[in-house]
Amino acid sequence: MAAVQDLDLPLAPDAPPSAASLPPSGRTRRSVHHALGGGAVADVLLWRHRNAAVFMAVGATTVWFLFERAGYSFLSVFANAILLLVLILFFWAKSALLLNRPLPPLPNLEISDEVVGKAADRARVWINRVLAIGHDITIRRDRKVFLQVILVLWFIAYIGRLFNFLTLVYIGVLLSITLPALYDKYQDHVDEKFGVAHDAVMKQYVSILSRIQAQPTKEKKTQ
After folding, report:
1. Average pLDDT of the residues of the chain
2. CA 122 to CA 98: how far, in whole Å?
3. How many Å separate Cα 56 from the centre of its chain?
4. How far, in Å, are 57, 185, 187, 202 from residue 191 at the CA level?
């Protein structure tokens, strides 16, 4: 009977989450997996498919070592790889005909119109963005966009003096498979530090922009 009486009692409402269970910043955590697209690529970048992530890191390191440290040229390695592949497929097909074996399982080697259309649409979007930036600088004389473009181009030129293109791509690959996973693990602390840094950078940016905008008014007053 006591058990039946206990079942008849109303259930207590769920207790609100304590302050210890909330993030330090007091904000909800963003889904890094969803921000990266939520597909197989996001799984690899977040090391949910550990074998694929390890293969990506080892492959990028091998390519960088062959071309940057060992001294091989891209054209010679590419030609030798294609030559080896053609020889393997040729002798495989010949031996299959002699031994009544199945032919090499080659896919349909052609590019569909749908793939070309999608690539063209994406390229058109990026080209229109670049043209819109050029229009804002030359026609509208937007000083804010002009300053942003100058800073981005200066940063790219500075990085280009430190690394060549292949090393820069290799560093980008390593960062792409390490930074998302680390941010997903330490998101609260990183957001807090980046918030402080962002406020400091925006203060400097606003002060520089105000100085640039104040110059034309001074020139008009002197005239």
Report:
1. 78
2. 47
3. 14
4. 27, 12, 6, 16
What is d(CA 14, CA 40) in angstroms, rounded to the nearest whole number? 36
Ordered alpha helix ranges (H), 36-73: 40-45, 50-64
Backbone phi and psi for residue 32, each to the nearest 5 degrees, phi listed first: -70, -35
Which residues are within 8 A (CB) of 96 and not within 5 positions of it... i.e. 6 or more apart?
102, 103, 104
What lies within 8 Å, CB to CB, of 136 at 6+ separation is 142, 145
Is the CB of residue 145 less than 8 Å from the CB of residue 137?
yes
Spans of the chain, pLDDT less than 70: 1-29, 107, 109, 215-223
Q: Tokens 């002060």, residue? A: 207
Phi, psi of 106 (to 5 degrees): -90, 135
Whole-prediction pTM: 0.57
Tokens of 54: 């390890």
Measured CA to CA, the distance from residue 28 to residue 63 in angstroms comes to 40
